[in-house]
Design a protein that fits this description.
The complex is a heterodimer of chains A (659) and B (496). Chain A has 659 residues and is an alpha+beta fold. Chain A contains 27 helices and 16 strands. In chain A, helix 7 runs antiparallel to helix 17 and helix 9 packs antiparallel against helix 10. Chain B is mainly beta and 496 residues long. Classes of the chains: A alpha+beta (659), B mainly beta (496).
């Protein structure tokens, strides 16, 4: 892409560095680094906050979490990992295996990358370099872009980088007569990569391309558009199959869900997404006016109309998403791209056109709009620098647990801690293991039924109603309940203090309670508690615990291999993970009958005799699906790959003759 | 649409139309948290921390009951009692539905605590009460206590550690693991040395008696703050006075409300003798307090009591006897500075050398039905219910409750109207025909829509050597508690 930044004939390093595109990229990079100055020191910890959870320690861990069929978030989940995990893992692998570097690069320098790509892409619309610089800077500093950085929305940053290239490629695909199908495959691949971060882009973009192809009334183009639409489904297997079954998963991006802020429609039209790091409303007004002005150009009217069609589809989608309570930023990015393209069409050659007619209201209006539009990137940059880095994005996680508790959790795989924190009138909580939550774990939630059961237990443990919630927590392998001492935590602390099944262990920055009932990821219940577990009780009663305490067994984070002593008939082996089809247990090689314990957990019926116990989660369906994904990716790569060869030869000639 | 101006108009019209349509139906963002609700209490524990029996000289009665819930709760509950030191299975109490009271429990226990656990429908409204009646020595008198749930913090206002006074903090740990407790004491001279009270350990399922003169020797007007660092305890403070061999009274110091800028001490009984209001300022800055008395005749601020200074960390003791000779009173203490704790000491005037004491604790208005589980109605004993409405007028229903094992029809309920700003008394012997004797248990419930009302019970028995007295403030056990709205959010695991 660097070659594209330079006009033809670039040679020496100095010349390259002084090229407008390179200068723009550098300027945007400096601007972003200055604006986000308070987040620059990686030694202070990992970036997190907003949508973003801390990056895993290594690319290998990230790949493992993508490839795994079982995810340990909360009570465990068999949901397919989000494709953004794979995309980020890929980027991390390229970046020396450091996921934090990938996240830092995207969030801190994504603006510069978006500007660079936009600068290259605008070459298709105008040859005027100043206009291209303006358009690229405006695109890179749109409210949605700065908002994406402040909310840690890696997906939106990726779309901001990829969308100009995708739109220009799509326009090429529709405008030109195809020399082959590979452009369609390549565009599909690009769309798949962007949609891996922001799945909503897939239906939105594919729909736009398909509509464009239908309007061209060319069967060949419709075929190409279908290729574009189908490739992401293939490349993003097996996640895409699940998303097609449950299209709601396409609507929201990856990461922690923040809930869409209520944005008035007039703000939406001005490309504001709501949330943090939005510049003043007037900043984008000039851009909108310039975009509308693009419609007045007679000679390139078709392009302007097409751009506005894209913008209106984006606006309409954003409005509908907002109405349904979903994140609308991706749709607004599409709208912004349309408006910006229309503005560029209008601005291209506006001086010569205006010079043809005598001075009058046209020139005055054009001048006002031009000034308003021209200040947009400058104003956005200025306000960003003035604001600096904004919450919720921050650097450095802070230890919630006291050292002894985190050491105990780290030493005993599978033990969990319930962390609660007051939030407004409600309470936020997480059921975490020793590593805490990492990037991607928000995308593998427990099933709704499991989540409801967990919600009920957590609400009960925070209410002084004498319920069995603490024992229900003990069945979920929760050793500690932690509450950071923040304003509003006193009420919760009082309720936790009177829970008979909890006992206060630490006060100070974090209040800590230990669950009195024995907790372990893997335990053997004697016949009486086993009967209660099979009945679907929430947890053992305190009396049962006293007369028939469970036998605690060691286990790993996911699999377990240990020896079970012999005992009475009617014993139940309970794994403190959500019951799922994939769990397997064998005792001396013979499989154990599966049951659901405590209404949610994976249980196995134990015979009288003991033996060597092996528990594992069946990974083969997931691995088969990943092989399918790999094959699909390979096929698409092959179909899209000749581009590299042709670009050097035939294709370049082709482009030159056309432009 | 071919003409540029037309297309511009069309796009502008579409944008405006979209804005108007969107504003006409504004989207309501879905809240992350559902609305908070309330839920029934389904489990409750209360502990009577100090049961003593000594043949004919000393007798402790424990009575347990369950108030009727506001709305019908179905299902089967259980009420079980277990001595703290016992290891076996708990004994089932004969109460099987709300609105029943079991009396004369724990009569075989001495030097032990009794834990009562209620589950299911019997948990909402569990009340447990103990009364110790002593005939001689330092135990001579009546000492009554509402047995509380084990918790992590308790305040007591009252008591002294001077010569002849024995002030004992009794703590029972119901859990299997040891409890670790800090005891902080304030006196009329200021805060006591905190070191001796730090890190008191109570082994699992044991109780411990801690003489408070170890923390604050030879002091009067104490305020005691029990802070549990680990575990939970049921705490109580017992004050016994002896002058040589002459009994000077015994009483449990009731648990006080935690520090607040407005504190209400309800139900100072009418009669000759001393009524000393004790206000402790546990803060680091001095404060100025004012007292307002609510009597059957009205509300007033006694002269000179509209601005009394309480230096930081000290206790102010004020004699209120001139106002309680002829009428009962409820005292409202308002602190202009930091929060304070308060209680009242009741000292009966009588012939002869023997004396008896009682304590009135600070209280909240009745939150729901409260039970008086142990009322002995006979000629020498009179139980009086004192009701106070500080603001608007309040209505209270006092309903006799069945005592398990005692058949026969229950007396009719009474409705008491407490005028605004007045204290009203109800002699509980009026539930029985004049001259009749018997055991009674009553439920005291604010009528639906009633204004807040404070309630206390004063028990006075004419003994051979003078009266025996004890006081109990009524609180109303929690029946429904707020249930927070919770939402899972992974970020709480990585940031504070």
């Amino acid at each position: 892409d660097l070659a594209d930044l330079a006009p033809p004939g670039g040679g020496a390093l100095k010349r390259v560095l002084l090229l407008p595109g390179v200068l723009l990229t550098a300027a945007l990079a400096v601007l972003a680094l200055v604006a986000e100055r308070s987040l620059l020191t990686p030694r202070r910890g990992l970036l997190l906050g907003g949508h973003l959870l801390p990056a895993p320690p290594s690319a290998r861990a990230m790949w493992a979490s993508y490839a795994g069929a079982w995810h340990p978030s909360a009570v465990g989940s068999a949901v397919d990992a989000h494709p953004s995990t794979a995309a980020l893992a890929l980027l991390s692998t390229v970046l020396f295996g450091k996921p934090w570097l990938a996240v830092d690069l995207l969030l801190l320098l994504g603006v510069a990358l978006a500007g660079a790509v936009a600068y290259v892409a605008t070459r298709r619309l105008t040859a005027h370099r100043v206009l291209r610089l303006w358009a690229a800077a405006t695109w890179a500093l749109l409210p949605v872009a700065t908002g994406a950085v402040a909310t840690g929305a890696v997906d939106l940053v990726a779309v901001q980088i990829a969308l100009p290239a995708l739109l220009v490629a799509a326009a090429d695909l529709l405008r030109r007569d195809l020399t082959g199908w590979r452009r369609a495959w390549a565009l599909g691949l690009g769309l798949a990569l962007a949609a891996a971060f922001a799945p909503l882009l897939w239906p939105l973009f594919a729909g736009l391309v398909l509509a464009g192809a239908l309007l061209r009334r060319s069967l060949r183009r419709v075929g190409a558009a279908l290729v574009v639409a189908v490739v992401p489904a293939l490349v993003l297997l097996p996640w895409s199959a699940g998303a097609l079954r449950d299209p709601g998963r396409l609507l929201d991006g990856p990461g922690r869900q923040l809930g869409q802020a209520a944005v008035p429609a007039s703000h939406l039209v001005l490309l504001q997404t709501g949330g943090p790091a939005q510049p003043a409303l007037w900043v984008t007004a000039g851009l909108l006016l310039a975009g509308l002005g693009g419609l007045l150009r007679k000679d390139a009217h078709g392009v302007a109309l097409a751009a506005w069609a894209v913008a209106l589809v984006g606006y309409a989608t954003a409005g509908l998403l907002q109405h349904a309570g979903h994140a609308l930023a991706v749709a607004l990015q599409v709208a912004a791209a349309g408006v910006l393209a229309a503005a560029l069409v209008g601005a291209n050659g506006v001086r010569t056109r205006l010079a043809q007619s005598s001075f009058g209201w046209r020139q005055l209006t054009a001048a006002v709009v031009a000034v308003a539009a021209a200040v947009a990137p400058a104003a956005a940059a200025g306000s960003w620098i003035a604001r600096g880095a904004q919450a919720p994005l921050q650097r450095g996680s802070s230890a919630v647990l006291p050292a002894f508790a985190s050491a105990e959790l780290a030493a005993t795989p599978g033990l969990r801690v319930l962390i609660v924190r007051p939030h407004g009138s409600g309470v936020d909580y997480e059921l975490a293991t020793s590593g805490g939550d990492r990037l991607g774990s928000a995308d593998t939630p427990p099933t709704p039924a499991q989540a409801r059961a967990l919600d009920a237990v957590v609400a009960d443990v925070l209410a002084a109603r004498g319920s069995d919630a603490a024992e229900a927590l003990s069945t979920r392998a929760v050793r500690y309940v932690a509450l950071p001492a923040v304003p509003g935590s006193k009420r919760l602390a009082d309720a936790l203090d009177v829970q008979a099944g909890l006992s206060r262990r630490a006060s100070g920055r974090t209040l800590l309670w230990r669950v009195v009932a024995p907790t372990s990821r893997l335990s053997v219940l004697r016949p009486a508690p086993a009967a209660a577990a099979l009945r679907g009780d929430r947890g053992p009663t305190r009396e049962l615990l006293r007369v028939a305490p469970p036998l605690l067994l060691p286990s790993g984070r996911e699999a377990a291999s240990t020896t079970v002593p012999s005992g009475a008939a009617g014993r139940l082996l309970v794994l403190a993970d959500a019951a799922s089809r994939g769990w397997r247990a064998t005792l001396d090689g013979s499989p154990l009958e599966k049951r659901t314990a405590w209404g949610w957990a994976q249980g196995f019926v134990l015979p009288r005799a003991g033996g060597q116990l092996v528990i594992s989660y069946n990974q083969s369906p997931r691995h088969r699906a990943l092989v399918a994904q790999g094959l699909a990716l390979a096929v698409v790569l092959v179909l899209a790959a000749p581009a590299a060869r042709r670009r050097r030869g035939l294709e370049v000639v082709d482009e030159e003759t056309e432009t | 649409m071919r003409h540029p101006s037309l297309s511009l108009l069309a796009v502008v019209a579409l944008l405006c139309g979209g804005v108007v349509a969107s504003n006409a139906q504004p989207a309501a963002p879905a809240p992350r948290h559902a609305a908070a609700t309330t839920a029934d209490v389904v489990g409750a524990t209360a502990i009577c921390p100090d049961l003593r029996q000594d043949r004919n000289v000393l007798r402790t009665r424990v009575s347990a009951g369950v108030a009727v819930a506001a709305k019908g709760v179905s299902g089967k509950g259980s009420l079980m009692a277990q001595p703290l030191s016992a290891r076996g299975a708990p004994a089932q109490l004969p109460v099987d539905r709300p609105g029943q009271v079991a009396v004369d429990l724990g009569s075989t226990l001495s030097g032990d605590a009794l834990e009562v656990t209620a589950r299911g429908p019997l948990a909402a409204g569990l009340e447990l009460e103990q009364v110790t009646r002593g005939e001689g020595g330092s135990s001579r008198g009546l000492a009554g206590l509402r047995c509380e749930a084990p918790k992590t913090e308790a305040w007591f206002v009252g008591g002294s550690t001077q010569v002849g006074d024995s002030l004992t903090l009794v703590m029972a740990n119901p859990d299997d693991t040891p409890a670790l407790v800090d005891v902080v004491v304030w006196t009329s001279d200021g805060p006591a040395d905190p070191r001796p009270g730090r890190g008191i350990s109570i082994p699992g399922r044991k109780r411990a008696a801690f003489p408070l003169d170890q923390i604050a020797p030879d002091k009067e007007w104490l305020a005691v703050h029990v802070v549990v660092q680990r575990g939970r305890v049921a705490a109580a403070v017992r004050h016994a006075r002896l002058d040589g061999h002459t009994p000077k009274g015994v009483e449990w110091v009731p648990q006080a409300q935690p520090p607040a800028t407005t504190v209400v001490v309800p139900g100072l009984p009418m009669g000759p003798g001393r009524r000393i209001l004790s206000v402790t300022n546990p803060g680091l800055d001095p404060t100025v307090v004012s007292f307002q008395l609510t009597t059957p005749d009205g509300q007033f601020v006694p002269s000179g009591m509209d601005a009394l200074e309480v230096p930081a960390g000290t206790t102010l003791a004020t004699e209120l006897a001139p106002f309680t000779d002829k009428s009962p009173a409820t005292v409202k203490i308002v602190s202009e500075g930091g929060p304070v704790v308060a209680g009242a000491f009741i000292y009966d005037l009588q012939e002869g050398p023997v004396r008896e004491i009682a304590y009135a604790g600070s209280a909240l208005p009745l939150s729901g039905p409260a039970l008086l589980t142990d009322l002995v109605i006979d000629r020498p004993t009179e139980s009086t219910l004192l009701l106070t409405a500080l603001g608007a007028s309040a209505t209270v229903d006092v309903t006799p409750v069945a005592i398990v094992g005692r058949d026969g029809p229950l007396p009719a309920a009474k409705r008491v109207t407490v005028p605004a700003g007045r204290t009203t008394t109800l002699k509980l012997s009026t539930f029985l025909p004049p001259g009749a004797t018997g055991r009674l248990a009553v439920e005291v419930r604010p009528a639906p829509g009633s204004a807040p009302v404070y309630a206390a019970r004063y028990l006075r028995e004419h003994g051979t050597r003078g009266p025996l007295t004890t006081m109990l403030d009524l609180q109303g056990a929690a029946q429904r508690v707020p249930l927070p709205a919770v939402a899972r959010d992974p970020i709480v695991a990585v940031t504070r």
